[in-house]
Design brief:
It contains 32 helices and no strands. The protein is mainly alpha-helical. Pfam families: COBRA1.
Length: about 575
C-alpha cells in the first residue's frame, strides 16, 4: 500500500535498496533465481563467516527474515546505547555536532517503525532540535505522539495553543478530583478534605504530569501559571490556587533551581507549606512570612498578585483560620485584646490578602487590602465573648444549685455578629471556622445558638462546598442529637432547606449527610425530609443518584408487612404526630 512506500521512501535517499528495487530487478531479468541470489548477496549482512552459517540456518527452517530481524534488533539496541553515550561524552559542541549529523542522516527514515526509536532517541538528546525538523514532527500526529517529552517541550515553548491543548484536560481532571473529595460519600470528622499532607497531595497524578511536562523549562512554567490565573479569573474556582502552590512545591521537591530561584513566591510558599503541614502558623514562621510581605519593594508590587493566589489556596485559608481560632482562645485565657496581638494581626493580614486575590488579579491593582478596624475592635472581641459564655456556662453547670434554678444557655445572638457575617468577608470566614470549632467540640448549645446567623452570609459562604463538607463531617460527632425533633428542625428547616431549592450543591450535601446518619434521625422527621428532598426535573444527575441511594436504604429499613401484623396489640407504638411547622 501507499503507507509501505512512504515508510521505506527514505531508504533510497541513503542509497539502500528497497522492495521497489527488487521488483525492478526481477521484472527486467531472464533468470529470476540467479537475480534473487545476487540481490541477497549485495544487500545481505556483509560478514564473511556468514556465507557458511546461513545455509545451515536454512536447513533448520529458520527464515532469513527472522535472522535479519534479530541481527537488526541487536544492532538497534547497540545504536541506542551509543546515542545515549555520545550525548554524555566529549566537549559539548562536539557531542551535539555528532548527534546533529546522525539526525540529518537518519531523519528521512523516521517513518520506519524499526528505525523510528533511534531517530527519536537522537532528538531527545539534542537540547536544540533544528526548527525544520520540529515543524515536520509537529505537522504529523503520529510522529508528535511518538516524541519524547524533551522534544515536545521544544515544540510547546513556541506554541502556546498546542501546549494549552495538552494541559487543559489535566486541569479539568484536577478540579474534578477536588470536587469528588468534597462530595464523597464517606463522611467523617477524622478524615476530610484537608487531611492529606502537602507532600502526599503533590504526588497526585496531575501535579506529577505537569511537573514532568515542564521539566526545567521556565517558559512552560510561566505558561502554566498564566493558564491557572486565567482560569481562576474566569471561574473563581479556588482549587486553581491550590494547584499553583502544589506545582511550585513539586518543583521544589525535585530541587529544580532553574525555576524555583526565578519564582518570587518560592520562599514564601515554602514557609507557608510547612505551616500547612502542621495546620498551624507558629511564631517563628509567622515572623518569616511577615518578613516576606514587608519586603515587597516599590516597583515589584505585582508579586502581591502571586502571593495572594498562594494565600487563596483553601489549604492556606484553612491553616490561617484554624490558627486564628486558636489564638483567640489563648487571648481569652491571657485577658488580652485582639489589637494587642501582633501574631493575630498578621494572620488577619494574610487572610485578607488571600481573600482579596480574585479582586487584585482582576483589577490589576497590586496593593494589600485595607484591614477594617471594626473587625479587630468589634468582631473578634464578640467571638471571644462566645468563648467566655461557654466557660461560664460549663462552670455554672458544675456549681451546686441551692435555690437558683438551672442557668439557661444564652440563646440570642448579638445582631452585630449576624451583620458581620453578612457584610465582611474575613469576619464571615473566621465566624464559620468558629462554628466548625464548636461543632467539633460537640458543643450543641453553642451550635444551635449561632446556626441562625448562617442563613445569610457574605457571598453565601456558609453554603460553599468546603464549609458544608467540613460541617457535615463534624456533625457526625453530634449524631445522637438527630433523634431530637427540635435539633433536626433547627438544622434542616432552619438552615439547609433554606437554600436547597436554589443551590444544587446544598441539596447534595444534605443527601450525603442523611445517607450517613439516616438511622439516627427521628422517624417522622426523616419521612418529611424524604418528601422535601425529592429531586425535581431540574435536578442534576448527582442529586438523583444520591436520592435513589437514600431511598433504597430507607426501603430496607421499613419492617415488612408480615412483621407488623404479628406485633401483640399491647405493644403497638403510639403514632407520632408531626409537629405543625
Amino acid at each position: 500500500g501507499p503507507g509501505q512506500a512512504e515508510m521505506y521512501a527514505g531508504l533510497q535517499e541513503l542509497g539502500v535498496a528497497n522492495g521497489e528495487d527488487l521488483k525492478e530487478t526481477l521484472t527486467n531479468c531472464t533468470e529470476p533465481l540467479k537475480a534473487i541470489e545476487q540481490f541477497q548477496t549485495e544487500n545481505g549482512v556483509l560478514l564473511p563467516s556468514l556465507q557458511y552459517a546461513l545455509p545451515f540456518l536454512d536447513l533448520h527452517g529458520t527464515p532469513r527474515l527472522e535472522f535479519h530481524q534479530s541481527v537488526f534488533d541487536e544492532l538497534r539496541e547497540k545504536l541506542l546505547e551509543r546515542v545515549s553515550a555520545i550525548a554524555l561524552e566529549g566537549k559539548v559542541e562536539e557531542r551535539y555536532k555528532k548527534l546533529e549529523d546522525l539526525l540529518e542522516k537518519s531523519f528521512s527514515l523516521v517513518k520506519m517503525p524499526s528505525i523510528q526509536p533511534v531517530v527519536m532517541c537522537v532528538m531527545k538528546h539534542l537540547p536544540k532540535v533544528p526548527e525544520k525538523k520540529l515543524k515536520l514532527v509537529m505537522a504529523d500526529k503520529d510522529l508528535y505522539k511518538a516524541c519524547a517529552v524533551e522534544v515536545k517541550r521544544q515544540i510547546w515553548q513556541d506554541n502556546q495553543a498546542l501546549f494549552g491543548d495538552e494541559v487543559s484536560p489535566l486541569l479539568k481532571q484536577y478540579i474534578l478530583e477536588k470536587e469528588n473529595i468534597l462530595f464523597s460519600n464517606d463522611i467523617s470528622f477524622l478524615q476530610n478534605f484537608f487531611s492529606p499532607s502537602p507532600k502526599t497531595r503533590r504526588q497526585g497524578e496531575v501535579v506529577q504530569k505537569l511537573t514532568q511536562m515542564i521539566g526545567k523549562n521556565v517558559k512552560l512554567y510561566d505558561m502554566v501559571l498564566q493558564f491557572l490565573r486565567t482560569l481562576f479569573l474566569r471561574t473563581r474556582n479556588v482549587h486553581y490556587c491550590t494547584l499553583r502552590a502544589e506545582l511550585l512545591m513539586s518543583l521544589h521537591d525535585l530541587e529544580i533551581s532553574e525555576i524555583c530561584t526565578v519564582d518570587p513566591c518560592h520562599k514564601f510558599t515554602w514557609c507557608l507549606d510547612a505551616c500547612i503541614r502542621e495546620k498551624f502558623v507558629d511564631n517563628k514562621r509567622a515572623r518569616e512570612l511577615q518578613g516576606f510581605l514587608d519586603g515587597v519593594k516599590k516597583g515589584q508590587e505585582q508579586v502581591l498578585g502571586d502571593l495572594s493566589m498562594i494565600l487563596c489556596d483553601p489549604f492556606a485559608i484553612n491553616t490561617l483560620a484554624l490558627s486564628t481560632i486558636r489564638h483567640l482562645q489563648d487571648l481569652v485565657g491571657q485577658d488580652t485584646l485582639p489589637r494587642e496581638s501582633p501574631d493575630l494581626l498578621l494572620l488577619l493580614r494574610m487572610l485578607s490578602l488571600g481573600q482579596g486575590a480574585w479582586d487584585m488579579i482582576d483589577s490589576q491593582v497590586f496593593k494589600e487590602p485595607k484591614m477594617e478596624a471594626e473587625l479587630i475592635t468589634r468582631f473578634l472581641p464578640l467571638l471571644m465573648s462566645f468563648v467566655v459564655d461557654d466557660h461560664t456556662f460549663t462552670v455554672d453547670q458544675k456549681l451546686p444549685s441551692e435555690e437558683k434554678g438551672p442557668i439557661p444557655y444564652p440563646s440570642t445572638i448579638p445582631e452585630a455578629f449576624t451583620k458581620f457575617l453578612q457584610e465582611n468577608r474575613i469576619a464571615c470566614e473566621i465566624g464559620l471556622y468558629y462554628i466548625l470549632h464548636i461543632t467539633k467540640q460537640r458543643n450543641k448549645n453553642a451550635f444551635l445558638r449561632l446556626l441562625p446567623a448562617l442563613v445569610e452570609t457574605f457571598s453565601d459562604l456558609a453554603f460553599s462546598d468546603i464549609f458544608l463538607h467540613l460541617l457535615t463531617g463534624n456533625l457526625t460527632l453530634l449524631s445522637d442529637e438527630f433523634a431530637l425533633e427540635e435539633f433536626c428542625t433547627s438544622l434542616f428547616d432552619g438552615f439547609f432547606l433554606t437554600a436547597c431549592s436554589r443551590k444544587e450543591n446544598v441539596h447534595r450535601h444534605v443527601l450525603r449527610l442523611l445517607l450517613h446518619l439516616h438511622h439516627k434521625v427521628a422517624p417522622a422527621k426523616l419521612e418529611s425530609l424524604q418528601k422535601v428532598l425529592e429531586p425535581t426535573k431540574q435536578s442534576g444527575e448527582a442529586v438523583k443518584e444520591l436520592y435513589n441511594q437514600l431511598s433504597e436504604k430507607l426501603e430496607l429499613r421499613k419492617p415488612s408487612p408480615a412483621e407488623v401484623t404479628e406485633t401483640p396489640s399491647m405493644e403497638l407504638p403510639l403514632p407520632t404526630v408531626p409537629t405543625p411547622a
